[in-house]
Specification:
Strand order of the largest sheet: 1-2-4-3-5-6-7-8
CATH superfamily: Alpha/Beta hydrolase fold, catalytic domain
CATH topology: Rossmann fold
Strand content: 15-25%
Shape: globular
GO molecular function: catalytic activity
Radius of gyration: 19 Å
Protein name: AB hydrolase-1 domain-containing protein
CATH class: Alpha Beta
Number of strands: 8
Organism: Miscanthus lutarioriparius
Oligomer: single chain
Number of domains: 1
Length: 322
């Protein structure tokens, strides 16, 4: 069997993670299931053993813990490969696979909402961060989870929060338009669909789109067929944009990051989300990037995140002094 695109991606990502001192781990949880919380935690209608796979340095944290939560794209390691090196110099970086992704447990039934994903991470925090207060960064779908985690845990356990390209104010109309294209857009079945996903996600043209169809098609089959039906149900389980979800300000310091050419959640959404999240919010627009600025302009993304997180560690009086 040849060395394909997926194997190359995995090699590059693992090299970045191992080079940053991170290693793969698994934590097992015995959690209650409930239809009220979208399948994980918070109820007493059943019990389920789940496993959360994650990357982190070995041993107890010697630096402040930082949780990086991936979006719907393939491979958490690929999405965060350009962040783990710079961020691990200042933080104990933890990169989990959410339920239904990577080597973590499948979704179960019903599929977990973003709040249930957050509940699973909250249950895992004693093992992931040794009980310390943890900062969180989430991109796209991971931003939904990051918001839910910060809201549920409160500022004593989680904060500050970085939310990147996550439309926390999407409406039912947005959902209907998105769901009409979601499965084929986010989980393409062929080379044409993969190119469309890349064009929607990035502002700059990506070299992978120049590869022959049969090479891209092979990668698509490997990347997007795993747990495909479960992930479609996972999309339907998102409560953002429904009557079940109400966006309220967070007491934690919040950094919103948005690519100015995002075609999935356009830039105007960023200003509306900022207005609703309260006074503790800073908005940073990353020019000439699309839906994944952490991948398209990692140097700028990393600087903005590090400046924000390090400033948030300072006493409030020092932070706001001019």
């Amino acid at each position: 069997m040849g060395f394909g695109v997926l194997q190359l991606m995995d090699f590059i990502a693992r090299r970045a993670f191992l080079g940053a001192g991170l290693q793969p781990h698994t934590i097992s949880l015995h959690t209650a299931t409930s239809t009220d919380t979208g399948g994980v935690g918070g109820g007493a209608s059943g019990q389920r053993n789940i496993h959360i796979h994650y990357w982190a340095p070995p041993g107890e944290p010697r630096l402040p813990p930082l949780l990086l939560i991936h979006g719907f794209g393939p491979m958490a390691t690929w999405q965060w490969r350009r962040q783990v090196g710079p961020l691990s110099r200042h933080f104990h970086v933890v990169v989990p696979d959410l339920l239904c992704f990577g080597a973590s447990s499948s979704c179960g039934s019903p599929a977990p909402s973003e709040s249930a994903q957050a509940a699973a991470l909250l249950d895992a925090l004693p093992g992931l961060a040794a009980g310390a207060r943890v900062a969180v960064v989430g991109t796209s779908y991971g931003g939904f989870v990051a918001y839910a985690l910060a809201r549920a845990a409160g500022p004593d356990r989680v904060g500050p929060a970085v939310i990147s390209n996550s439309d926390l104010l999407k409406t039912a109309d947005d959902d209907r338009a998105l769901l009409q294209r979601t499965a084929d857009l986010l989980m393409p079945l062929d080379a044409r669909g993969a190119r469309r996903l890349i064009e929607m996600s990035f502002y700059r043209r990506q070299a992978i789109t120049l590869l022959p169809d049969f090479v891209i098609g092979q990668a698509v089959q490997q990347l997007f067929t795993d747990k495909r039906e479960e992930k479609i149900e996972l999309m339907k389980a998102i409560t953002v944009g429904t009557d079940e979800f109400q966006l309220i300000p967070l007491p934690q310091d919040v950094l919103l990051i948005w690519g100015d050419h995002d075609q999935i959640f356009p830039l105007e959404k960023a200003f509306a989300v900022k207005r609703c999240l309260g006074e503790n919010v800073t908005l940073e627009i990353v020019e000439k990037t699309g839906h994944v600025p952490q991948m398209e302009d990692p140097d700028r993304f990393n600087k903005v995140v590090l400046d924000f997180l390090l400033a948030s560690q300072k006493p409030s009086s020092t932070r706001h002094a001019r």
